[in-house]
User: Fold this.
Amino acid sequence: MSILSRLFGGGSKPAPEPELYKGFRIFPEPEAGQGGYRLGARIEKEVGGAMQTHRMIRADRIQSAEEAEAFSIRKAKQLIDEQGDRLFG
Assistant:
């Protein structure tokens, strides 16, 4: 995608709705690359009146974009279960 397309929104798909989980918002954001899609997600939660964000990127690769989104959400939920608010420092 060219820089002009990015600036003016051409060719981009609409932002996904977040998955809500235990007070966190999970936005699946797998990254396309050679060999498939790398798992990734943005995890957000309001803490003390401020929005906190954690970017999760995994080395796992999945062939399909839809499967990569589903696995990204599953991994983000696992991370939330393991770390909770500690994700934000």
Summary: DSSP finds two helices and five strands in the chain. Helices lie at 3-8, 65-83. The chain has a mean pLDDT of 88. The two ends are 34 Å apart (CA to CA).
